[in-house]
Amino acid sequence: MPHAGGPHRPARRPRTADLRDVVALDPVFARPGEATELPRFRLPDQPSLPETAYQIVHDEAMLDGNARLNLATFVGTWMDDHANRLMVEAADKNVIDKDEYPQTAAVEERCWRMLAHLWHAPDVAHATGTSTAGSSEACMLGGLALKRRWVEARRAAGKPADRPNLVLSSAVQVCWEKFCNYFDVEPRYVPLTEEHKVLDGHDLEKYVDENTIGVVAIMGVTYTGMYEPVAEIAAALDRIQAATGLDVKIHVDGASGAMVAPFVQPDLAWDFRVERVASINTSGHKYGLVYPGLGWVVWRDADALPESLVFRVSYLGGDMPTFALNFSRPGAPVLLQYYQFLRLGVEGYRAVQRTSHDVARYLADGVARIGAFELWNDGSDIPVFAWRLAADHTDAGAGWTLYDLSERLRTHGWLVPAYPMPDDLTDVTVQRVVVRNGLSRDLAGAFLADLEAEVRFLDALKTPMPSAGERSAFHH
């Protein structure tokens, strides 16, 4: 199973000051008659003025990192003022309450049908989909549909259905580990190697059998940003079916790439143009350009989403199918996604994603020119790339590691994670940069200047960096 953060590099813990029993108010903010200290871990006995409560929460949140300089996260950190207004106006809407908020429900359907069209569903009218709390829930739903379809087919054939397995790369996001754990599915991880940096269909026949519910293909591996070649995986499954009769479907985890590939690599066949693709998920809050809290999943047709998993509710005299793990959920992110679809359109998304892509390639080229590093990939898929220390700067030979560099970059405000690659490659440590909308060419140039300065600083050290204390880590 893939792990994140080095075994000798503990994750950062909350600031020790948070362990004190009280929150002390600055005299400037305390109003006459108010308490000057409030309990930290229990409800206060008395209310506070809204101005006081606001100032406390505002000051606490100020201690977080600068989201614009966070090069670790895929999640959107900026929207325009009109989107912010919509967010506030729709803060009270519950997307699951389709009877009370029928128009939000209608907008939700419009959005996933737009995605079905974008992803080349053969018949958009017969596709189905839903919004989710994020791509993790969307992955769970995609996996559940694969499992239920397999179970029903096995039972119809009079065969046992108690040992399902799912084939995936060892570099999958942790939500797939959760899916297999929570829903009693055996994960069959195909390990990455220097020769096979992604799941590409190589040796797939060693992992697929009659109990395989499906294969997961990732459009933008979290560790590196690389695409897994969906068409090549499908071709391998075609060969397996020809030899064994097993018809195994693909779920595409397009958390990031499903909102990048249609605009940056429009001719790449990874979506419903590949017949074995049964379902696709994405994160509206990643390259869908929406604030955190939104995912999407779309199924090719009704056959790909078994009716036994679908609940039906009625609104405006019509019939609305619903399939979700969460119940009450904010409706505002759905409206923000619709806003972005209307505001940007195909040309707008193309401009935004290609700009991020260009910045990623510019950064990758700049990192490659620094002699200390060797690129693992160059950002030519989604706008994400990773690097490792070059042979003459290995952890054993140099006086510093990528973990040290990550810590040094924090002094400039940059959050750039360092972590080991997944199983069978855990001896390889990489750093990764995610380029999102808002990371301009100027900011990228400033980052490269800081990176080069810190490499010069570390190279000039006469003794190794101390290893004691907390180090940065990253969780996929």
UniProtKB/TrEMBL annotation:
Keywords, in A-Z order: Decarboxylase, Lyase, Pyridoxal phosphate
CDD domains for this protein: DOPA_deC_like
Sample GO molecular function, one term: pyridoxal phosphate binding
An annotated GO BP: L-glutamate catabolic process
EC number: 4.1.1.15
Protein family membership: Belongs to the group II decarboxylase family.
Name recorded for this polypeptide: Glutamate decarboxylase
Originating organism: Luteimicrobium xylanilyticum
The encoding gene: gadB
